[in-house]
Amino acid sequence: MAYTSDYPIINVTVDVVVLVAEEDELRALMVRRGGPPYQGRWALPGGFLEVDEDLQTAARRELEEETGVGTEDVRLEQLGTYGAPRRDPRGRTISVAWLAVLPSSAEPRAGSDASGASWRPVDTLLGRARVAFDHKQILRDAVERVAAKLEYTNLGTAFLDEEFTIADLRGIYELVWGHALDAGNFHRKVTRTEGFVEPTGRRRTAGRGRPAELFRAGVEESLHPPLTRQVLEG
After folding, report:
1. How far is CA 114 from the centre of its chain?
2. How much is the CA Rg of the chain, to the nearest whole Å?
3. What is the residue range of 206's domain?
4. Contact between 181 and 198 (Cβ < 8 Å)
5. Is residue 162 a part of any domain in this protein?
6. Do 107 and 188 sit in the same domain of this protein?
7. Residue 159 gets which letter from DSSP?
8. Residue 158, in any domain of the structure
9. Which helix (H) or strand (E) holds 2?
10. Model-level pTM?
């Protein structure tokens, strides 16, 4: 089908930031570009929107095609729109970025036009790593979105398995916020905020210490009052 217009053609793409917290570091799912532009560099999974496709559908399709990671249980939220005039050397392109948080890192499998797929340390990617397009900025925005949402939502529980200890949850906050939190203060704030977490009635035994109480995510997604970074700092 041919299209004509008085206006220049602007392409639309989707990019997906998927984050996990493992081995005391925050990691992002990245693909190594198999062709130009930026051949060989790490990039976020993503690609061009098809003419009959919804934006979120495109994000899920590209994520699965480029990494092999199934999207049935992946909860995506729209992160932002990126449209700097020269962000893509192939032409004027606007990208709609999406964000997902997972409790564990499924083994990725490169596909489509990616030559590799891997979970990469976020600190490295945001440091001296050479990342394709403006994906370093998108990733930086995603981390800041997560850091902000930890204050007023239960997003931190999405990084964890169904059952977890308060120490596990505190570790997520410390990892994303980048500083230690007072353990007692954090425990009181979390357990006294109605609907944030719920006890399971079970405990986890680790070493010689007292078995730790296990919790699950509560029904409230919004926290009142919020858990501010400064108040909880250790």
Report:
1. 20
2. 20
3. 153-232
4. no
5. yes
6. no
7. G
8. yes
9. none
10. 0.92
Q: Which amino acid is at 160?
A: L
* Among candidate residues 45, 31, 17, the one with its CA nearest the CA of residue 117: 31
Give the span between the Cα atoms of 212 and 193, in whole angstroms: 19
| Alpha-helix runs per DSSP H in 48-165 | 55-67, 122-125, 135-152
**Would you state the structure tokens that stand for residue 29, as one six-digit string?**
């799912």
E strand map for the chain: 11-22, 25-33, 42-43, 46-48, 77-82, 93-101, 114-121, 197-204, 212-217
| Residue 57 neighbours by CB under 8 Å, 6+ apart | none
* Whether residue 20 is found in the same domain as residue 111: yes
How far, in Å, are 9, 31, 89 from residue 69 at the CA level?
A: 32, 12, 28
Q: Specify if 97 maps to a domain.
A: yes
Return all residues near 60 (Cβ < 8 A) that are at least 6 apart.
Answer: 71, 74, 76
d(CA 208, CA 225): 36
Q: How far apart are CA 166 and CA 191, in angstroms?
A: 9
CATH code, domain with 23? 3.90.79.10
* pLDDT tens-place string over residues 163-213: 999 999 999 999 999 999 999 999 998 998 889 999 999 998 866 667 889
Asked if the structure places residue 143 within a domain, the reply is no
- CA-to-CA distance for 109 and 116, rounded, in angstroms? 7
